[in-house]
Structure formats: structure tokens, C-alpha cells
Automatic annotation (TrEMBL), chain B:
Family assignment from sequence similarity: Belongs to the bacterial solute-binding protein 5 family.
InterPro entries in UniProt: Peptide/Ni-bd, SBP_5, SBP_5_dom
Keyword Transport: yes
Pfam families, per the entry: SBP_bac_5 (PF00496)
Organism placement in taxonomy: Bacteria, Pseudomonadati, Pseudomonadota, Gammaproteobacteria, Cellvibrionales
Domain Solute-binding protein family residue range list: 89-471
Keyword field: Signal, Transport
Protein localization: Cell envelope
Protein known as: Peptide ABC transporter substrate-binding protein
CDD domains documented for this protein: PBP2_OppA
Keyword Signal: yes
Length: 312, 555
């Protein structure tokens, strides 16, 4: 408990730095939220600046923003005047989170299978084939893989819808695969390496010497150790899936958060940039913490060290 | 022994693992026999699936500024008049008729007695007075308030100089009579009434959620929205789609043939094109250049290309010494091979531009001496003191980051190098940075575009007056301003007015503060079942008259 609390406390200064830096950086960037190709009259600019308090000094704006933020209010979006940033983030979150979750399932499912297959028979065909595919998966960016999958499964074979989210049956498959692929490849490599390392440990030799069946050795003794790096990776991976869904959301017309994140920067939608940045920072901090906790809980050595530490 | 044992056991678990993987995929993919396409079901049920290009900023006609919003607002609201989708001639809409005074300054509109809001309220002349007052309220920050400028005192009210709206030239003489008084006869005034900034809004609804000068209240949400157009807002799913359905209380509901429209915020062009191919859309907002040839050859029926009232051009920064010389500007303008750009880079049937106003803008065509002439251009450059480009300072072309702009800039870079032997660098900036750079005059030559707000040469010519805000070249000419601002508005006839504007455009082209490059076309993919959607200069559909006919035309 103390471990969790201290980690959470550590996160606060990190977030404060992120918030402050973002706040001043977006305002320092050239081009304002209301600049447009078609000249806008000075009166209109003045009215808009007054509405969003952009006529005040940056420090006043900062103080006002932090006050609102303390109340959990991200403010109104500049680009979408009828929407609050809170509404847009929580409107886009379900789709992005769902997509992230499915992508994670894909990543873990395919990644583990491939990685364990490869790790059990290193330097054989059973190793090379999945690992080559994994290498390709890491190298292939979503903006290439997405259209490719669409072309094959959507257009040629007509098995799956090519876009949308929750409109047509099966329309969540291709986006989840696309987003999960790179992570699946990564997990495959991690679990292969983990398994190889564990299989060379003394206790595995002991188990073998005792005459245990190989699958029992793997499932009972090796797997837990082999999975450690994968589990440590899951937290950052999920945060990355959330924040990195922009490309996939655009390719597949998914009403998620990632699209706002990138668009907000182009639009100089200050509050939206702040809101999404803060949201993703919090998500990253939380998921890192979560995977640390999980890793600690799974690793007896770490658990023990922690208990000793809190005892003194 | 052990080894053999291990192998066989192990193969089993491997097989189980692989099976599990496959099973996962199958389960996720389960139940995905691609059903009926949107187009097929839409054709049966009268629902149009429209690729709208982007998520609408808002659905408040006095706040928004974009094209995607326009396509939704013209379904939800209706102005006094509308334009015929084929000819763009003004047609009765909320106003069943109108009268123009002999001096051309006073319009008297008769509102049709059957006009209703979507909640059943009667729509009266007072609604227009209040709506226009709102549109001009300074605090609201309506970027399109300038559309009202022809009306007496409208500009003064919008800038806050005048606070009494009764001095503005808009009066409700009775419930069904609206009188609008203009400063000058304005031939294009009726066209403006079809712009969303002049649409009426429902006062009681807006006041229920906020004050007259308050923007961004929830009155525009589905469930709250009260409109007067042929369709009513049914659903607005952020970043997913906007659904409108036929408004049964609309005065002309019996002639509305669609039962609804689904608008999709299709930001990604290639995704949009794939959606069209998969039958998820009836119409796309654009077409990727790389797909043009495919559709030309394979599905010419689906490719709709029409002239669009807009011009792509380069601005000179005439404040810079070497670009202040008109001979230099002309030499550069004369060595842009527009035909080559249109044919090899754009490939969508765009027209090379030799004037700023597109040809045949409501019967007006500028006379232009501009032509592609390398020899004459070299002479001009030599006369300006740079024989064969010697001593000419490096020229820089600024454009906002976009593949097509880059291609055009690269082409022009080569043309100038070959023809004039001058060195050109090209520089791209993110859209907002580019706007800032241009507004600050921190450029030499900058890519630009102008789309007409209404079909009249004035829409392309009044931007070049000195304090126009859209000029940005540093060029001005008192004769030009006199012609455009004073003489043209008080001209006695259309011919006289066009002659005056033509004279003004000649002055502009003779000074060449800009390089016209090409006139736009609108390019869409439209499913052959969509009828009643003729292309027009403003790319302005009339959803009221669109219908869907499923059977293919081919035998």
C-alpha cells in the first residue's frame, strides 16, 4: 500500500511539469486558434478572445486554467464551440479504450503463442517463421498494414467491413488487428527471449532431472518467469495503444479520442491539446504503475524485498 | 527416451496453442457475413449516405464557417430564397415572393403563411429580424457578419458603433412582410440570402439555453434543435455521423423525396474512397488524385467533375524591393506553364487561370493579356536589371503542407529555373503557421486560394482593396478602389457594372500582385442511383430535390 501511495505521489510533480510545459508551449507556437484564411474582422477576433479569456496575460490564463483543472474542468473546445473538452474526451474514450483493449488481446494472444512457439524450439523453423513475421509486424506501420488488411479482407474477400465502429457486425476486427499487430510482434520477441532465458536456469535443469514432463516444466515452472518481461511491457503498451490509435482511428473512421489529439494540435485548439495531453499523461502514469504492481506481485524476489523494506 | 517423449507431448501442446489462436480470430471475426450495403438499403429506404469531409464544428448558422457545416445546415434550415441547383437562379423559399423598389435598394419579402418551425411554431418576419440581429451581435463573434454589409447600418451594428438595431435596414412590416433596405443596389443580394449566416434561427429555443450573444450553448444538440428546413436533426454522434430525417412540418414536405441523410465525417480521402467502393457512401467529399484515372476508365458514371467558383493563385509580397517591380512580377507570372500544371499535376479537368475571377461568373469574363511567353518574360526581367536572371535574389515560395501544393511549387520552381534562370526555394509550413506568416507579411511568394461566397465578380475583386484584410500583397491602387468600391455599386445596368469591374480587373492584372494559376473544379464520386444532384459553380446541392433510384440506367 505504501508502495502504491508513494508512486502516486511521485506522479504529481511529473504531471505538473507536463501540464505547465504544454500550457506555455502551445501558446508559444505560431498561429492562433482563430486565425483563418478568410480574414476575420478585428471585432470578431476581439469577441472570441474575450470569450476564452485570451485577452488576459498568459499568467492570468495559467492561473485560471489551473483553477478550473483542479475542479476537473478542462474548459470549452475552441474549435468546436458547442462542446466542452471533458465531453469530447469522455465521448471519444469508449471507442478508443475498446479498440485498445481488443488490440491488446490480439497482441497478447498472437504474441504469446508465437513467442512461446519460437522460444521452445530456438533456431528451428518453428522459431524462424513466427519471428520473421514478428519482425515484419514491428517494421510495418499501421498506415500500411491497415489499408493492406482492408484491401485483402474487406475489398477482395469481402469478409469484413472496411470501416466503422459498432455499426456492422465484425467491423471491429480489422482495426483491432491493425493496432495490435506491432505490439503482438513485440510481445512475441519479449516472450521468446524470456522463455529462452528461463529455460537455461538451474531450476529448470533440476525439474528436468526429476523427470518431469516437458509441458509440465514449461507450464508450471518456466512460464511465470518467461512472462515477466511481457507483463512489465503491458502497462506502457496499453497506454501506447490508447495514445497511438490516431492512425487506426482515421483509417477506419472510428469515433475515438486519438483523432482529437492530433487534430487539436493542428487547429491550435489550446484547451483540447491540454485536455488530451493531460488525459494521456495520467493514463500512461497509471498503467505503468499498474504493470509495476503486477510484476511485483508475480515476482517473489521483489515482493520479499519490498516486505523487508517496509519492515525496517 | 526423454527427448522423444518431450517431442510428442510437446507437439500436442503446440497444436492446442495454435488452435486457440485460430479460435480467437474466428470468434472475433464471428458473425461477419457482410450484410447489405448502405447504398442498397439506402436506395430502398430513401436514405442518402453522404461523405461530409469533417466533423461539423457546430450546427449554429451564425457561428460556423466551413463547407461540411454548410451541407448539414442547408438541410436543417432555410433562408428567404434558395438557388436552383442547376442554374443557381434565386427561387422562392421561406419568402414566397419579393418586390424590389425602383431604385434597387429596398426589397420587400412576403413570407409564406405555411412556413413552420420543426416544433410547429409559425415562422414570421419577426424571426428574421431577431435572427439577423443575433447574427450581427458583436459579442457572438460571427465570422460571416460581413455578409450583411450591403444592408443599411449592418456593418456599424456588427462593429459595435451602433447599438440600436432599429436603425439597421431590416424591418418586419407585419407578421408576413419583411423589408430590407440596402446602401446601394446590390445585384447579388438575393444570392446572399441563401448563405447560412442569413438563415433564421428559432428564438425561443436559443433563449431557452442562453442569451442572444452567447455561443456554444446546447441548443444545437439533437433533441433541442428547432429548424425550418426540409430535414430535422435526429442524431449527432461526435465524430461518427450526423443523421437528419425528413421534417414533416416543412412547408413543402410533400416534395421532399429523401426520408433522411446520414453525414459521415470522412477526414481520410483514401478511406472515403474505399467506403464508396464498398457501397457505404452515396457520395464522397473528394477523390484522391491517384484514383481519378481508375474511375475515368472503370466507372465514369460515378465520377462527377464540375467547374467550381474558385481560383488557386500565388501572392507576391510587393513590399519587397525585387518584387515591387511590376516587370519582375509579370516575368514570373508569364513563365508559369499553367497548361502543364493542369494536365500533369492536377489531372482533374481544372482550367488554367489567366485572371482572378473564373470565366463566365454569371456572364462576366475578364479580359486578360496574361499568357505563357518565355521570350517576353526574359526581356521584362532583363529590363528590370536581371538579364538572364543575373543578380536576382533567391526567391522563396511558401505553401501550407499538402502534397498537391508541393507538387505545384516544385513544377513552378523548375519552370522559373528553366525560363528565367533564377533560383527558387520552396518552403512548407503547417496551416496555422502559414496563415500567421502570410498575415505578418513574412513571405516572398505564397500559395493562396479564393472561393467565391456568391456568384458575382465582386466576390473576387473587392478583396484587393487596401484594407481588405484578404489582400496581404501590399499592393493597392486608388483607381482600382474607386472602380470597385464606388463606381460598380452605383452602376445603372448589369452591362455597365461588368464593364466597370472588368476595367478594375484589368488594372489588377496589369499590376500583377498575384499569379493566377488555375480555376478549381469540384470532384466527387456519386453513386449512379443518386438523382437530382447536378454539379454547379458553388457546388451547392439542394437536398430537397435529391432522390434515389435503385435500378441501373444501363440495359
Amino acid at each position: 500500500m505504501r508502495f502504491i501511495a508513494s508512486r502516486l505521489l511521485q506522479a504529481i510533480p511529473v504531471l505538473l511539469v507536463v501540464i505547465t510545459a504544454t500550457f506555455f508551449l502551445v501558446r508559444a507556437a505560431p498561429g492562433g486558434p482563430f486565425s483563418a484564411d478568410r480574414a476575420v474582422s478585428p471585432q470578431v477576433i476581439k469577441a472570441l478572445n474575450e470569450r476564452y479569456q485570451l485577452d488576459q496575460s498568459v499568467w492570468q490564463q495559467y492561473a485560471a486554467y489551473m483553477t478550473d483543472l483542479a475542479r476537473g474542468d478542462f474548459g470549452p473546445s475552441y474549435k468546436y464551440p458547442g462542446r466542452s473538452v471533458n465531453e469530447m474526451i469522455f465521448g471519444g474514450l469508449p471507442a478508443t479504450a475498446e479498440l485498445g483493449l481488443y488490440a491488446l488481446l490480439v497482441a497478447v494472444g498472437i504474441g504469446l503463442c508465437a513467442g512461446l512457439l519460437a522460444g521452445l524450439r530456438p533456431n528451428t523453423g518453428q522459431d524462424y517463421v513466427p519471428m520473421t513475421i514478428a519482425m515484419l509486424g514491428i517494421c510495418m506501420p499501421a498506415f500500411l498494414l491497415g489499408p493492406l488488411l482492408v484491401l485483402v479482407f474487406g475489398m477482395r474477400l469481402e469478409w469484413l467491413p472496411i470501416s466503422g465502429w459498432g455499426d456492422l457486425p465484425g467491423d471491429k476486427v480489422l482495426p483491432s488487428l491493425t493496432l495490435g499487430a506491432a505490439y503482438a510482434a513485440y510481445i512475441a520477441r519479449l516472450s521468446r527471449a524470456g522463455l529462452l532465458e528461463v529455460m537455461s536456469q538451474d531450476y529448470i535443469r533440476t525439474a528436468r532431472a526429476k523427470g518431469l514432463a516437458e509441458w509440465r516444466i514449461v507450464s508450471r515452472h518456466a512460464l511465470r518467469g518467461a512472462l515477466m518481461p511481457v507483463i512489465a511491457f503491458l502497462g506502457p503498451a496499453f497506454a501506447g495503444l490508447l495514445a497511438g490509435s490516431f492512425v487506426v482511428e482515421t483509417i477506419f473512421q472510428i469515433p475515438g479520442l486519438g483523432r482529437f489529439y492530433v487534430q487539436a494540435a493542428f487547429n491550435r485548439d489550446y484547451t483540447m491539446i491540454m485536455g488530451t495531453t493531460i488525459f494521456f499523461s495520467v493514463a500512461i502514469v497509471l498503467f505503468n504503475l499498474l504493470s509495476d504492481i503486477l510484476a511485483t506481485w508475480l515476482n517473489p524476489r521483489l515482493r520479499l524485498a519490498l516486505r523487508k523494506g517496509s519492515g525496517t | 527416451m526423454q527427448k522423444i517423449n518431450r517431442g510428442s507431448r510437446f507437439n500436442k501442446s503446440v497444436r492446442v496453442g495454435v488452435l486457440l489462436c485460430l479460435l480467437c480470430t474466428v470468434i472475433v471475426a464471428g458473425g461477419c457475413g457482410s450484410g447489405e450495403s448502405n447504398v442498397a438499403s439506402g436506395n430502398r429506404e430513401g436514405i442518402l449516405y453522404w461523405g461530409n469531409g469533417a466533423e461539423p464544428q457546430e450546427l449554429d448558422p451564425h457561428i460556423v464557417t466551413g463547407v461540411p457545416e454548410h451541407y448539414i445546415l442547408i438541410a436543417l434550415l432555410e433562408g428567404l430564397v434558395q438557388k436552383d441547383a442547376a442554374t443557381l437562379q434565386p427561387q422562392p423559399a421561406v419568402a414566397e415572393r419579393w418586390r424590389l423598389s425602383a431604385d434597387g435598394r429596398v426589397y420587400t419579402f412576403t413570407i409564406r403563411a405555411s412556413a413552420r418551425w420543426s416544433n410547429g411554431d409559425r415562422l414570421t418576419a419577426h424571426d428574421f429580424v431577431w435572427s439577423w440581429m443575433r447574427a450581427l451581435t458583436p459579442k457572438l463573434g460571427n465570422a460571416y457578419a460581413y455578409m450583411f454589409n450591403p444592408i443599411v447600418n449592418a456593418q456599424a451594428y456588427a462593429t459595435g458603433e451602433l447599438t440600436d438595431f432599429s436603425a439597421v435596414g431590416v424591418k418586419a412590416l407585419d407578421d408576413l412582410t419583411l423589408q430590407v433596405t440596402l446602401d446601394n443596389p446590390t445585384p447579388y443580394f438575393l444570392q446572399l440570402l441563401d448563405h447560412y449566416s442569413m438563415f433564421p434561427v428559432h428564438r425561443a429555443t436559443i433563449e431557452k439555453f442562453g442569451s442572444i450573444g452567447e455561443a456554444g450553448t446546447v441548443w444545437t444538440r439533437a433533441g433541442n434543435y428547432v429548424g425550418n428546413g426540409p430535414f430535422a436533426l435526429r442524431q449527432w454522434d461526435l465524430n461518427k455521423k450526423v443523421i437528419v430525417e425528413k421534417n414533416l412540418l416543412y412547408w413543402d414536405a410533400e416534395n421532399v423525396r429523401l426520408s433522411g441523410i446520414h453525414y459521415f465525417p470522412t477526414e481520410n480521402l483514401t478511406t472515403e474512397e474505399r467506403m464508396f467502393r464498398a457501397g457505404q457512401l452515396h457520395r464522397t467529399s473528394e477523390v484522391p488524385v491517384g484514383k481519378l484515372d481508375f474511375y475515368r476508365e472503370q466507372q465514369p458514371d460515378s465520377l462527377r467533375i464540375a467547374p467550381y467558383l474558385g481560383t488557386y493563385f500565388y501572392r507576391f509580397n510587393t513590399r519587397l524591393p525585387h518584387l515591387a517591380d511590376v516587370r519582375v512580377r509579370k516575368a514570373l507570372a508569364m513563365t508559369v506553364d499553367r497548361e502543364a500544371i493542369v494536365e500533369h499535376v492536377l489531372r482533374g479537368g481544372q482550367q488554367p487561370a489567366y485572371s482572378i475571377t473564373p470565366p463566365d461568373t454569371l456572364g462576366y469574363t475578364a479580359s486578360s493579356d496574361l499568357r505563357y511567353d518565355v521570350l517576353a518574360a526574359r526581356e521584362l526581367l532583363a529590363a528590370a536589371g536581371y538579364p538572364d536572371g543575373a543578380g536576382f535574389p533567391p526567391v522563396d515560395i511558401l505553401y501550407n503542407t499538402f502534397e498537391q501544393h508541393r507538387k505545384i511549387a516544385v513544377a513552378i520552381q523548375q519552370m522559373w529555373k528553366q525560363a528565367l534562370n533564377i533560383d527558387v526555394t520552396i518552403r512548407n509550413q503547417d496551416w496555422k503557421v502559414y496563415l500567421d506568416t502570410q498575415a505578418n507579411g513574412n513571405f516572398q511568394i505564397a500559395r493562396a486560394a479564393w472561393i467565391g461566397d456568391y456568384v458575382d465578380p465582386n466576390s473576387f475583386l473587392d478583396m484587393w482593396i487596401a484594407d481588405g484584410g484578404n489582400n496581404r500583397t501590399g499592393w493597392s491602387d486608388p483607381d482600382y478602389e474607386r472602380l470597385v468600391s464606388d463606381e460598380a455599386p452605383s452602376a445603372g445596368s448589369v452591362e455597365q457594372r461588368y464593364a466597370i469591374l472588368g476595367e478594375a480587373e484589368s488594372i489588377l492584372l496589369d499590376a500583377m500582385p498575384i499569379i493566377p494559376i488555375y480555376h478549381y473544379v469540384s470532384i466527387h464520386l456519386v453513386h449512379p442511383s443518386v438523382k437530382g444532384l447536378p454539379g454547379n459553380l458553388l457546388n451547392n446541392p439542394n437536398f430537397k430535390h435529391i432522390y434515389l433510384q435503385a435500378e441501373p440506367a444501363a440495359p
